[in-house]
């Protein structure tokens, strides 16, 4: 073999070896790439947490108690039956007050609107509560009610149009424009009534005029144009004796879990089936509600049962058999429901009753007012699985106090009448103020304070 030919063979062999190596490397590279994570292109959405600028804190009070039928020639005509005393306060001092009109009572002045003005981009926490005791031939008892936030949608769970009941729905519009309000009555039959509430005005409607024939109605209040404050005034006359009066706040909407604290059971002479009664409604869908009753100071359940609910049909069940004392009642339902509990301390003359609405969950700082009334007491329920400590501080500079509530328990603490408190808690709790004496009952759930703004996440 010549030298030139030998060189050509060697060069060709080198190229073949190099090709094989490169091909093998490509195969290994492709195999590795298949199993290795591929680079991805991801775009995280832009987002920012924003705390809205607060507006003025506004609460609407209910004003004068109303009486029906004092003029025999006009049985549906209303008259003022007494002006309640008002307790109000706030973290920046007493809120400003302005009166609205109540033309159907023949008065130029009506309920008050409380306003806490924004200062340096911060809204003060404010609270107010009214109370009144009456002793007339047609109206007797004690009633108390916190001043509340007007809403576009709310529910009144209570009242009756049975013989002796003289219940009134009051609608208060604190806005500068009229509100068109539709009342939808849920009962054995369903009906609607629409009315207009003028700007800065309160009107009253006899429940018997909008819910005729319904002994256990539930009323949905839907407003267009401006939010309204809806309140149910209930009173009862048995034979010829007045047997109590109450003011009941509307609830914001249906929920699957409701907690009632501040519920009281009283001794009864004979059948106690009407002493403590729970009314429920499942709007839009049938469901089953589980009711658990727990005594204050104990984590054990003293009563538990289920209530089947047909869609849009109110149900009423007795919480009979409870020993006299203070209780927390929890309602868990498979679908959202609205509910309220009616308690009474007797029958006939010198007795009284009160409707208790659900106490919302409190996690933030709140301010609440304790009105003038007998033996005021704050009952605090901790339905969570974590212990909580609640601090109560009078806004007038009194000595603060701490209350420890074990997980799953309820505790009560005495508070002062005509005093506004700041309440802080280390965990989620439910609370209500009770005022109790023979022939005088009221239950005021502690509400979240207006003016508290939470951060929201904004996605541009």
TrEMBL record:
Top-rank lineage group of the source organism: Bacteria
Organism: Microbacterium algeriense
PROSITE patterns, sorted: PROKAR_LIPOPROTEIN (PS51257)
Protein name (record): Large extracellular alpha-helical protein
